[in-house]
Description:
By secondary structure, the protein is an alpha/beta fold. The chain folds into 2 domains: 6-127, Glutathione S-transferase Yfyf (Class Pi), Chain A, domain 2, CATH 1.20.1050; 146-299, Rossmann fold, CATH 3.40.50.11810. It is 48% helix and 11% strand. It contains 15 helices and 8 strands. The chain has helices at residues 15-19, 21-32, 50-56, 58-75, 84-98, 101-111, 127-132, 139-144, 161-164, 180-186, 208-211, 213-229, 240-257, 268-275, 293-299; strands spanning 6-11, 36-40, 79-81, 124-126, 154-158, 191-193, 234-237, 265-267. The strands form 2 sheets. It has a 4-stranded parallel beta sheet with strand order 2-1-3-4, with helices on both faces. A 4-stranded parallel beta sheet has the order 6-5-7-8, with helices on both faces. Helix 13 links the parallel strand 7 and strand 8 (265-267). The longest helix has 18 residues, at 58-75. The chain is globular, with a radius of gyration of 19 Å.
Amino acid sequence: MSGNMHQYAFFLGCIAPNRYPGCEAAAIKTSQRVGIELLPLKGGSCCPAPGAFGSIDLNVWYAMAARNVVLAEQMNMDIALICNGCYKSIFEVNHILKHNDELRDGVNEVLKEIDMEYKGSIDVWHLAELYYDPAICGVDKIRASITRPLTGTKIAVHYGCHLMKPKKERHFGDTENPMWIEELVDALGAESVQYRNKMQCCGAGGGVRGYDLTHSLDITNEKMINLREVGADALTEVCPFCQLQYDRGQIEIKEKFGIDYGLPVLHYNELLGLAQGMSPQELALDLHAIDCKPFLEKIL
């Protein structure tokens, strides 16, 4: 910790910097205003993607994720990240290797070839949980950082599968009906809204999007129906891959099924950036597949 700032090694992942750079920019800028400093984790690779790598070769998954952890160990910092898939890979591998000596030794045999050694000396956090944790930030500090409240907007929350489960390895309490991200949304001046099957998958996870897009979009379409029923102005999530599925997926649903939802999808950090006064240009909202203007017109 530097002064009043809590410092973390910031793991970017793949989709945020490549598809939604506003998530990356917002994470860095908004966090500074609530006492969290995100420092570049230089040399990071893919997490690697849990659905793809974890399904094909667990040993490769362990070794690649462990290498990312070692980079943070070399900085003597815990990792903070903004993607549920990255969280699953890096948090889970770190957790497993800390508790399995045989597996850790095997991974270190691989890492030895690039002069690295996993020690298990750091922890891995999702940035959203650091925002919620009163020891690090807390809802009140988020609320105090707001200069442009999102008053008059109804926002639905998608938690995503990899953030909350498997429950036995997570530390989020109620994984069936969580409400802590809703508290973070309400702190922005918005009204969080509940909808049917909130905890259902976005449709992309586990490699489904890459393997069977039509089935993947069926799942997404069911979620969109439920979101439309409650009159949400926008959907927020804490995972760029879920964001891709809901955002780009709406275009694909229109092409394949002929249904047009037009629901803006924003990562929580993008919402926080707007509420803290960042411009849509700073947040690269023009790169979203679904036009955010109907939502922006309500708050700007």
